[in-house]
Specification:
- It contains no helices and 8 strands.
- It is an all-beta fold.
- The strands form 2 sheets. Strands 1, 2, 4, 5, 7 and 8 form a 6-stranded antiparallel β-sheet that branches. A two-stranded antiparallel ribbon has the order 3-6.
- The chain is about 0% helix and about 50% strand.
Length: about 70
């Protein structure tokens, strides 16, 4: 089990990634942004939980003025 804290300020589009050896969970602590899983994009905000299965391409996108902590 690993945990981390990420804080991003927009505008930014993170490099897409996929992980064969582990699943991920993003717990959105504050702010707003968009999480992309495969071809599906979903807006997220504080309180959201995003489950990312193994081998799923994913990334985070923030527009100008958005800030996201997860």
């Amino acid at each position: 089990l690993q945990m981390g804290l990420v804080t991003l300020d927009g505008p930014i589009v993170k490099t897409p990634a996929a992980h064969a050896d582990w699943e991920q969970v993003y717990v959105i602590l504050s702010g707003t942004g968009t999480v992309v899983l495969g071809d599906a994009a979903a807006p997220v905000s504080a309180g959201a939980v995003v489950a990312i299965p193994r081998n799923t391409r994913h990334h985070v996108e923030l527009k100008e003025g958005e800030r996201l902590q997860y």
